[in-house]
Description:
By secondary structure, the protein is mostly helical. The protein contains 14 helices and no strands. The radius of gyration is 26 Å and the shape is globular.
Amino acid sequence: MVNSKTIALGIVKGVGIIVLAALALYFLYLIQSVIIYLVVSLILTLIGNPILDFLKDRLKFNHVAATITTLLFFLSIIAGLIMLFVPLILDQGRNLSLLNTAEIEKDIIVLKNQFGAFLESHNIDSTSFFSEANIPSEFNFSFLTNFFNSILGMISNFGIGLASVMFITFFFLKERRLFAINAKNLMPNNQEERILNSLNKINHLLSRYFIGLLLQLLIVFILYLCVLLIFGVENALVIAFLCAVLNIIPYIGPLIASVIAAILTMLCHLGGDFQTEILPVTIYVMIGFWVVQIIDNNISSPLIFSKSVNSHPLEIFLVILIIGFLFGITGMIIAIPLYTILKVFGKEFFPENKLIQLLTKNI
Length: 363
């Protein structure tokens, strides 16, 4: 029989484990900025590895020169994006009154009243319509203030973050062999080859994936921008940029982008007549965005992602759907990289499993 002393020791041990886990989580919370820097640096390292190898193998750069050149390449892209987008986004953001919640509330109410008048002119009771649609009579956008203040805070700390990320990325690229050797020493001898093969494949596939993601966002941004410019929407650049960034969230992101594009398009044309100007332009923009999403969902995304991680488009869709149901939007964002990692380890450690053979035949 288990005596009281054994039970007490078990309880103390369990409580101790819980306390240590809580302290570990709290510590991770305190250093969340450092964790973000490490994750971003790891992503840049994965993207930079093919560039580094190209410079060394094709252009005969030495390792340090290739590493510095790769970092300068990243910095030039970041500097170019800052000079291209930030002044325009700040200027057009002011035009959209993105930081003035009171102005947004007033514009939304005016827009609602115009829409109500449009319904009444077509013999539709606007009061009943708004009531059935659960549209409130007043709007509270105070949450936007905190959101944009946090964004501004991030921008103000961007210099420190960029310097930290570049510093970490430099050593990730420069000392990648040293990291590999140290990791190798920590591995069990009987699993060393399998683990190294898995890490090499994961590095290769995720490098291609993140490059493909950047390419997809660029394509979507250009298409969104073309739609907005064709229909004469003001502040087209900032709207296209915001909507393209939302495409990071698979499937749901484009739907949110369409709603945001519709609202911002109506706000940009608020001075015009609702029936003859605001409504038609908004409908045209929505149709244009849907066409872009059809192109992205059926052509660009499946081709880019299926080729980058060697998975079938239907396979990718089902994985995103399942992980999205389990872990929400965050799960959808990390679904493809996580699935790729699991596939690689599955192929290395369980090569005889028929399901894994079927899923990993292309990697």
